[in-house]
Sequence to fold (470 residues):
Amino acid sequence: MPGATLTALSATDVVKLVRSGEVTPVELVEASLARIEAVDGGLNALPTVCAERALARAAEVAADAPLAGLPLAVKDLTDVAGVRTTYGSPIYADHVPDRSDLLVERLESQGAVVVAKSNTPEFGAGGNTFNEVFGETRNPWDTARTCGGSSGGAAAALASGQVWLATGSDLGGSLRTPAGFCGVVGLRPSPGRVASGPSELPFGTLSVEGPMARSVADAALMLDAMSGPHPADPLALEPPPVPYRQAAAQPRLPARVAFSPDLGITPLEPAVRDACERAVAALEAAGVEVQRRHPDLSDAPAAFQVLRAAGFVADLEPLLAGDRARLKPDVVWNIEQGLALTPRRLAWAERARGLVAAEMAALFGEVELLLCPSACVVPFDVGQRWVREVDGVALDNYVEWLRICSAITLSACPVVALPCALSDGGLPVGMQLVAPPRGEWGLIAAAAAIEQVFGMHQRVPLDPRSAVAG
Fold:
């Protein structure tokens, strides 16, 4: 089968081809490498390609392995043994780890083949993917625009058909924002659902790893391969008794959902509001009861900023003293913000997070899902570091425009980010589908049905476009 045809297929269909003997894992890697060569020059989504390693591993993969030799991209925040891993920082520009992250070890044990590292902002800080090591990553829908971040390289690679699956990570929207900007699927699981590490901070619950794919079924296939306990991760959960891919195969529209265009906490571009309203109208036409409401998240943005800053101190403060000049200004700002925190402020943020959880629990006593946009803007100019104004409202730091995702982070709820519509300018707009904690199975079943209603999942992969009309 021609490589170009293969890269247009879904991950689930390609696995079937491998198991039937029609295609080999080596042929999958060759198709992926050819597609990377053909299109990534204009995108810079996958700056580090490990072709020799991938071909060697593909030759050893069993056809009946869960992922059957599927090539995937690993975010450049995540270690892959023997492969340059920079974390997007000039401090680690030549770093080559000896050991892979637990997540990579698990995926490879399930038959995945790492073909490349995906680009990310420095230490994953920010919603636009650029760094001083590799430069900026562009959006396949319009290469003048950002792909989002920090899992931006992953989203752009998926949307352009370079890989079938990709790892993402998400603190304040790093998986959900680029999924929405690039018209793909991102799944932020509950804390502990995906084991990661080894880490000096194994008890953190704000940042999680999750699958990115071009459809809900493909994301579910990957989540099955990613899930499960590990002795090095004290929070890791047991896998579900019934695989997530079966949830995707049993799509079920929810009876009742809540929808809020702004969660009461963020300004919103009219283009995003209009696209989401059209998507919600389609759900209502399909028989879903939509209640226009949201929980009280008024303290969530400030609480997230506090807890994020404290995390930056724990994770990156040692670099401030030794390598301050090589850290990007946003990272320096975030660490210094954390160093200035008082115990009283930290305690307040923890209490505020508890209230967020209580508010969400009350809401899920009455509806099955909460729906909201995955970003407050459409993809913006790739040269703009971060969004400084939305609908006339000024924003004073690089995290504020991500409020609609970061507020959900505090809840520990699983989220699927789906493309829901196109803006009037032809750019993808994403919707977050939020479910109760540890409710991934029902969330995936609902997302698979909602994906059909939205009808956006067959618009990728696409060839990179230099501009979008309008």
In short: The chain is about 35% helix and 15% strand. The two ends are 37 Å apart (CA to CA). The first helix runs from residue 3 to 8. The mean pLDDT is 97.
